[in-house]
Amino acid sequence: MNLRLAGERLVHNNFHALTHRNYRYFWFGQCISLIGTWMQNIGQAWLVLTLTGSPLLLGLIGTVQFLPFTLFSLFAGVIIDKYPKKRILIVTQTVSMCLALTLSLLVFTDTVRYGYVMVLALLLGITNTFDMPTRQAFNIEIVGKDDLMNAITLNSATFNLARILGPAFGALMMALLGAGWCFLLNGLSFIAVIYGLTRIQTTPYVREKRQGSGFLKEIKDGIVYIAGDRLLTQTLLLVTIVGTMAYNFSILIPVLTKHDLHLQEQTYGILMSCIGLGSFFGALTMSFLSKRGPRRRLILISSILLSIFLILIGLMRSPVAAGACLAVTGVFTILFATNSNSTLQMHAKDEYRARVMSVYSLVFAGSTPLGNFLAGLAADRFGAGGAFMLCGATCLILCSIVIIVFRKRAVPASPGNPLEPKQVA
């Protein structure tokens, strides 16, 4: 009985989002589905590298997969505001399941080609352009504002636990049975999240339609709103830089494993799990701190330290040292992402939240095509180590510039509201 009470107290104090029935359905479905997603991520990267042997072509796959974020994120935000988010998620998750099963069929029948992988990656990117901001904006509907940051940190913990288990299990499956099983199991894992969504009962927030308010005008209104808010502007600028220069692990780690360290699938899976392990512990730490709300200072500090550790990864010449640096990097990636995400959602007004999160998707995931292409190009010319150092140095310089520019124009936040910097007259 005491153990049960202790468990209930732990959940209530540190994982309060799980006390919401709707969130439990959503969270448990994600726990299963995200493991499959990470299995597909490493399986696809290794498959492309095996088919082509080219880091540049691997980077091009990442560019194609995330290009729809760049092209359509702003339009997606307007659409998401107008329809129930639960319905949108059921559609996007079903399409993602079909795409994964199609890729598994191509591999099993030995008809897979680089061009086919590229087309499927493009279709998945289009689907995720609607899925990602919808999931972000859906959190507040199922937990409310008070538990929003706790829900975001739990989502991050789940994502990064899957980042540990998925690559490790996926590498094992590739070594024993082939990459096709990674795609098949990922496709089947979507059943869990689709079932969870059908069980959720909530009152959706749908913005009222306005006469004479077209797509372009609503996109413009959202951008004007963001540009007029210093906290949103600085946060999104940092997210743009980090999203472009730092989040290229899916491109650089397989190249680091295969070409720089001259090792095989098992080491690749372990290195991917290392960054997931660090991110998982970072997410757990944030769950214990979530009652205090997001911290602007953590966004700034973590962006700098993340950049420094990217440079250190590039200097490592053994898998053990590289794995250790990747684990520490994972901690700072989650501190940055969780605080940035929470800040944007909690600070934005209800009528602008989906559009703010669509811009977040644009600058975070939509910047990935450029980042993946540059990382693939750098790895092709200088190796993965040189690419890590180049990306880290660029990220460090640009983040420092943004921090300095905004510090000159605002004094530190007031104790009563850590998110709001005081304006200088």
Automatic annotation (TrEMBL):
It is a multi-pass membrane protein. Residues 17-410 form the Major facilitator superfamily (MFS) profile domain. Keywords: Cell membrane, Membrane, Transmembrane, Transmembrane helix, Transport. It is found in: Cell membrane. Gene3D superfamilies: MFS general substrate transporter like domains. Pfam families: MFS_3. The chain crosses the membrane at residues 25-49, 55-76, 88-108, 175-197, 236-256, 268-289, 298-315, 321-338, 359-379, 385-406. This is MFS transporter.
